Amino acid sequence: MFEIDGKRSPVKKFRDTHHMMARMFAMGMRPGEVAERMGYCLSRISVLHGSPAFQAIIGHYREEVDEVWKAGQDEYFTLVRKRMVRAERLLNEQLESAEENEEQIPLRTLLALTSDGADRAGYPKRTVATNVNISMAAQLEKARKRSDKVIDVTPKVIPFKRRI
Q: Of 36, 61, 119, 161, whose CA is between 20 and 30 Å from 111?
């Protein structure tokens, strides 16, 4: 656990990808290079890079980064990037082929493609949390107020006329 200004940092919440990014920054890479290699948008990388907790991780890894690790990472990311580009190209070709042949692609597959792509492009799913306070006292008070209303149920007398 890292400390920032004497306070404990939420570093445990960072995933392996965040640690990988921190190592890249520790190697001296710029935010644009990190974004390109990791497949994230530049704004997401910049926000993360500006975080004090993330800066603490970068400082930690700055001490560990050496030339052998740098060389291995360059080769590894070159291979990963080639594979990602190749996979995206093949994916696009299959989508175009399905469109040309008027084949139906399952909705679940299309949603997975757009969801993953949007997340990587900086458009993650948004979660809206709503806190609902259900207090027994509040519910009873509302019921009491509703019951305070008086409804007039007195029957009206309608004169009866007899027909002859």
A: 36
Number of domains in the chain: 1
36 vs 80: CA distance, rounded Å: 12
Domain-located, residue 84: yes
Secondary structure (H, E, C), 60-100: HHHHHCCHHHHHHHHHHHHHHHHHHHHHHHHHHHHHHHHHH
Query: pLDDT averaged over the chain?
Result: 76
Is 161 part of a structural domain of the chain? no
Place of tokens 């399952």: 106
| 50 in a structural domain | yes
Where residue 56 falls among pLDDT bands split at 50, 70, 90?
A: confident
Give the model's pLDDT for residue 40.
82
pTM over 0.70: no
| DSSP type of residue 14 | -
